[in-house]
Amino acid sequence: MDGHRRARDRPRRGGRAPPGEADQRRRDDRRGTGRVGVITRADFDDPALAAFLAAHHADMAPTAPPESRHALALDELRAPHVRLWTLHDDGALVGTVALAELAPGHEELKSMRTAPRVRGRGIGRRLLTFALEDARARGVHRISLETGVQDFFAPARALYRAHGFVSCPPFGSYADDPNSAYFTWVPGPTSP
Where is the segment annotated Disordered (predicted)? Predict the structure, then answer.
């Protein structure tokens, strides 16, 4: 090397961003999504989290009968086999995503939600990419999910397919349900 660092490798004013954050910022900038907060582990003492998850459950109420709704309650998200992350924008909670271990190496994507006011800004894509990268780094070899078949869930299904999820039969404790669609993802050499 000639002693000169490329612009992207130079420290930014005010110091270098935490590991991984600078890479995410560059990806966001290339996608034109803008930068919205940092993804962190959930603070279960934050009252905004309970309200956000209650809104998540309320969003699903008109889409399917109760037996076809599988979102985890706040207490279930506290379980030791569940990892829940949040994303804030100017102090407001705008997104959540969780991974729940089903079996060693197999996890389920849960509580994937973006606040309605920020939908279409790449928040869901960012949360999903983060969760997939976390799983891959921990050696998870399969992630599955259940989502609705109704039009309300069409953007979510498109997002999952765009990230390499493919349709699969019911998994874990799920039974065949006409209101549910099941997907699975196996990390490959080019996946997040």
Answer: 1-36
Report d(CA 121, CA 153) in Å as an integer.
17
pLDDT given at position 48:
94
What's this model's pTM, rounded to 2 decimal places? 0.78
**Rounded distance, CA 169 to CA 184, Å?**
9
Sign of the CA dihedral with 139 first, then 81, 112, and 29 last: negative
Mean of per-residue pLDDT scores for the chain? 82
Tell me if 88 sits within 8 A of 73, measured CB to CB.
Answer: no
Cα–Cα distances (Å) from 168 to 68, 94, 100, 127, 164, in that order, read: 17, 29, 18, 22, 12
Mean pLDDT within 84-113: 96
pLDDT in tens, 53-89: 998 878 777 777 778 778 888 899 999 999 999 999 9
What percent of the chain is helix, strand and coil (3-state, nearest 5)?
35, 25, 40
Q: Are 98 and 110 in contact (CB under 8 A)?
A: yes
DSSP state of 3: S
DSSP, res 184: E
State how far Cα 143 lies from the chain centre: 12
Q: Which domains does the chain have, with CATH numbers?
A: 31-185 (3.40.630.30)
165, 184 contact by CB (below 8 A): yes
